[in-house]
Write a structure and sequence with these properties.
The chain has 336 residues and is mostly helical. It has helices at residues 2-39, 45-58, 66-73, 83-102, 109-125, 132-163, 169-209, 222-238, 241-250, 256-275, 282-295, 304-335. Helices cover 78% and strands 0% of the residues.
Length: 336
């Protein structure tokens, strides 16, 4: 009886740790949703985070849980997962998020979590229990999502420039200040829909591994879904201002029309990835879109040195979080 009670407490603490990661995901990735709308002056920072948090949460009513299914059942074989693996995965992801937030680097919370899961499983049982198709799909979108964001952002910018070529700049600016509210809302909706589901997926994985829900269930418990969407929305409301500065000011200088094109290109990429159940990086997506918009003006409009540092963080995210997760797994064996 005492052993069962102790196991329940461990599961509860891990669920709380996962919710904390989800909150940090919103905090860390708030820049993805609000950097453009803040840097263009369309919304004040406090207004922007409330606006983004609202759309983060209502994504619960829009998207199917296909990304949660990928994380919960498509990255590693559920049979190998235990409380130690989940602890290691969360420690790896949270550690990387804190490090990159401190230095203002817009890295991927999503890939930090995937890397954490992979690293903890390898520490436990090697490579044999990884599901190659799910991992390859996730890794492929490290490159696909920024490229698609870049392509859509730049094409939209070119199209808008052609359509409004005879319109006075002041009038264009006024129109796109209003339209940017629509694009920012759409991007925040896509951010909530894709990112909250990753935490839903790891809690689902934990509950399956510990027998609190059946592997055959079509969806995780409703309390898990609501908690994760609420946590990411709450995190977004606090905003990671260090990263907002990098995303909104250091990569390129944005006007409302550029902010609209970047957010719309990023939102379309997120909607597509979520529909196919791909745990894509919202950070990669919006960064690619911002660079795409900036490059349509002139190559020198993009600060390529800053963009290069961001890319290095992307490359290191999965292996770095995997290494910390492996250490976290071994530490947890001694802890509980």
């Amino acid at each position: 009886m005492e052993t069962a009670q102790a196991a329940l407490w461990v599961v509860m603490l891990l669920v709380l740790l996962a919710i904390a990661f989800d909150f940090m995901n919103g905090f860390h990735d708030a820049a993805n949703s609000i950097a453009t709308v803040v840097s263009t002056g369309v919304l004040k920072p406090a207004q922007a985070v409330m606006f983004a948090a609202f759309f983060n949460f209502i994504a619960i009513f829009v998207f199917h849980l296909s990304v949660a299914a990928t994380v919960g059942k498509g990255i590693v074989q559920p049979g190998v997962v235990d409380t130690h693996v989940v602890f290691g995965a969360l420690v790896g992801a949270i550690s990387w998020n804190l490090l990159t937030w401190y230095y203002g680097i817009p890295s991927s919370s999503s890939h930090a979590l995937i890397g954490g899961i992979v690293g903890a499983v390898i520490a436990k049982s090697g490579f044999g229990h990884l599901i190659a198709s799910g991992i390859l799909k996730t890794v492929a979108f490290i490159f696909v999502s920024p490229l698609l964001g870049y392509l859509l952002g730049s094409l939209l910018m070119v199209a808008v420039a052609w359509l409004f070529r005879r319109t006075r700049p002041g009038r264009v600016d006024r129109w796109f200040r209003r339209l940017q509210l629509v694009s920012a809302g759409a991007y925040s909706l896509g951010h909530g829909g894709n990112d909250a589901q990753k935490t839903i997926g790891i809690i689902w994985l934990l509950l399956i591994a510990t027998g609190y829900t059946a592997a055959s269930d079509a969806a995780p418990p409703m309390w898990v879904i609501v908690s994760c969407y609420a946590a990411i929305a709450a995190g977004t409301m606090f905003g990671g201002w260090r990263i907002v500065k990098t995303m909104g000011q250091k990569i390129t200088k944005l006007k409302p029309v550029g902010g609209f094109c970047a957010e719309t290109g990023g939102a379309l990429t997120l909607f597509l990835a979520t529909a196919f159940g791909i745990p894509v990086s919202t950070t990669h997506t919006i960064t690619g879109a911002i660079v795409g918009v900036g490059s349509t003006q002139r190559a020198s409009a993009v600060r390529w040195g800053v963009a290069g540092n961001i890319v290095w963080a992307w490359i290191l995210t999965i292996p770095a979080s995997a290494l910390v997760a492996a250490l976290g797994y071994w530490f947890s064996l001694a802890l509980f």
